TrEMBL record:
Stretches with biased composition (Basic and acidic residues): 236-256
Name of the featured protein: PRC and DUF2382 domain-containing protein
Residue stretches making up the DUF2382 domain: 146-257
InterPro entries with a match to the protein in the record: Bac_photo_RC_H_C, DUF2382, PRC-brl_dom, PRC_barrel-like_sf, Stress_Response_Assoc
Chain ranges of the PRC-barrel domain: 6-73
Region (Disordered): 236-270
Alphabetical list of Pfam families matching this protein: DUF2382, PRC
Amino acid sequence: MISVEQVHTLSGRDVYDSDGDKIGSVGQVWSDGVGQPTWASVRTGLFGLNESLVPLETADLQGDRLVVPFDKSTVKGAPNVDADHDEPLTQKDVERLYEYYGLSWQDSYRAYQAGAAAGGAHYRGDTDVRDTGYRGDRGDLGGDAMTRSEERLDAGTEREEVGRARLRKYVVTEQQQVTVPVEREQVRLEREPITEANRGPAYSGPDLTESEHEVTLHADRPVVGTETVPVERVRLGKESVRDEETVTGEVRKEQIEADLPDEDGRRTFQ
């Protein structure tokens, strides 16, 4: 795209097509109202009496040549637009040209914004640069007023997957200790004297004998076993937690500078 600083060098330059064939030479240049060059007329035919308009947003300066990405026949066959009068191009003219060259107004508007941000509105030069007179969706009113626009952050949310939770059950073995009460029998010697109560059994046997008496002892032995019992149920649930995050983004805005001859300095509207 041709920059604002290059406008004053366009007049009279030879125009070449994408195949390297000469089409003609630059006649007049049209700007978009803030100085950004948008269209140029190409003088063709004998003595350059015919003029065809070609878009500058896709053109390029290569040495002394203005090179356009269209072939010679396409440029010469562009819709007929009267380039001799001093009036700006009409909206109908521009729409016909955009349609003919297969261009998008939205793409051209983005190119315009980039040029304006680079200082395109402050061009002053010697080339006869005319206003296209066409604003499209830009909202500029022309005349003695212009619209200042700016971007604003439009923050919202979008839901995305951040992770998954799952339940998994597995068996582990651990050592436990429990205390079990146990009992055991032990021998206790009891001696009792001969009394009237036990005299009979004491004298019932022979006087002198040999004998033995045996007592069986018992004891409890701890026995360990297990049983499976349910102790609790675990399930997965979801809950929403509200929080706040701060987001940062870049926005662009247009500034309008007014040169007032009756006041000192320059006033800026932003």
